[in-house]
Protein: Phospholipid N-methyltransferase
Organism: Nocardiopsis mwathae
Amino acid sequence: MAPTQSFSELFSLDARLRDTGLFFREAFRTFRATGAVLPSSPVLANHLTRFITEREDPHAPLRIMEAGSGTGPVSRAIAAAMRPGDTLDLVETNPEFTSYLDTLLETDPALSQVADRTTIHQAPVTELGVEREYDVIISGLPFANFTADEVRTIFDYYFTVLRPGGHLSFFGYLYTKEVKAIIAPREDYLRQARSRWVVEEWVNRYGVESERVLPNIPPAWVHHLRKPAEE
Ligand SMILES: C[S@@+](CC[C@H](N)C(=O)[O-])C[C@H]1O[C@@H](n2cnc3c(N)ncnc32)[C@H](O)[C@@H]1O
């Protein structure tokens, strides 16, 4: 796939409607794990693929992992930005989503181009094992729905399998703290505050850039972290 091809050209309205229907159903059924009611927008997906598009060494192939692929809006953007030799692992716990992703590897214009270099894993990301290494990890996991211990375990895992100098990009939603303060039970508000502190700890230590992405429902922030080269 030529990297110059516009991602939005490939992401038809029809495909988005199909994704949205499945995502919405699964969000209703398993909200804690899904953590959103709509798939990410193409604009958010493009922000998340920043370190696949902008490469330190344009000739070195990238080993890429996406954790929490859902119905694949970010996977499509990753596929559209991949170059010859790049490989992709998609990791997702929900079997409805993994079988949908399987279909996309055959039918989607961007993903079908990289199907022979893409592996779908149906598992919690931390169970993939440490005998692997990635240059770029993109995480769609809903940290705001997890406990602080779960968030710490996931970040530890990402930084174990990320190569020194590699990048982790992930997103969350703006204003969740304010909304939870009004509508959530006190225990849930405190749990989310503790999870957020863990995320902030990692961003403060390793963050290289943070961006707000307003064209998404709900609006989101994206953080990019870099594992120090000497670690
Ligand atoms: C907020 S959705 C993001 C989906 C998609 N990446 C997007 O941006 O629209 C989070 C996804 O993470 C998956 N998930 C939750 N916990 C997971 C885990 N421990 N390992 C892998 N996937 C997980 C959920 O099933 C869900 O599809």
